[in-house]
């Protein structure tokens, strides 16, 4: 994924993807290209760092029998990112079971996932929420 153009040219680096796609760690470098007008991390870059992973993780774990999409997102900026920032995504079996049971009942499932974006010094820079849509595939 590090060669994917939206990441390659934006300072985003995927540090780790677990073989089972249940854990992903990403980092955003702080460079002039990722800085906003006042020199801190650009909020769009922070969001882009978090954007695809919940959907990909759920999709890879539920398999072809399910339709999975991103539905909504929220970002709460808490402190300026004055240096590199990162986050880790953790997808548990309990969450996968919940999604599968609800979708197998024929329901359209909407579930929020949360991430904290943290600077190297431990400062909480942002909270990013993604809402993922899941339903059983037809046919």
List low-confidence stretches. none
User: In which range does the helix fraction lie?
Assistant: 10-25%
Number of helices: 4
N-end to C-end Cα span: 31 Å
Give the structural class. Answer: alpha+beta
Kindly state the number of beta strands: 6
What is the string of helix and strand elements?
HEEHHEEHEE
* Strand order in the sheet with the most strands: 1-2-4-5-6-3
Beta-strand percentage range = 35-45%
What is the residue-mean pLDDT, rounded to a whole number? Answer: 94
The largest sheet is:
6 strands, antiparallel
Instruction: Categorize the overall geometry.
Output: elongated
Alpha-carbon Rg, integer? 16 Å
List keywords for this structure.
139 residues, alpha+beta
Sequence-ordered SSE layout with sheet pairings:
Layout: H1 5-8, E1 12-17, E2 23-28, H2 43-50, H3 53-62, E3 66-77, E4 85-90, H4 93-104, E5 109-119, E6 124-136
Antiparallel strand pairs: 1-2, 2-4, 3-6, 4-5, 5-6
Q: In short, what is this structure?
A:
This protein has 139 residues and is of the alpha+beta class.
């Amino acid at each position: 994924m590090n060669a994917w153009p939206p990441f390659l040219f934006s300072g985003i680096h995927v540090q780790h993807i677990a073989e089972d796609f249940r854990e992903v760690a990403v980092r955003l470098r702080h460079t002039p290209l990722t800085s906003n007008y006042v020199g801190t991390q650009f909020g769009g870059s922070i969001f882009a760092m978090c954007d695809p992973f919940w959907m990909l993780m759920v999709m890879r774990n539920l398999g072809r029998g399910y339709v999975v999409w991103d539905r909504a997102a929220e970002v709460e900026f808490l402190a300026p990112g004055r240096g590199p920032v990162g986050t880790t995504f953790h997808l548990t079996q309990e969450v996968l079971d919940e999604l599968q049971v609800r979708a197998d009942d024929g329901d359209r499932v909407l579930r929020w996932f949360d991430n904290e974006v943290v600077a190297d010094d431990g400062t909480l820079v942002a909270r990013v929420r993604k809402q993922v849509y899941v339903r059983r595939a037809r046919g």
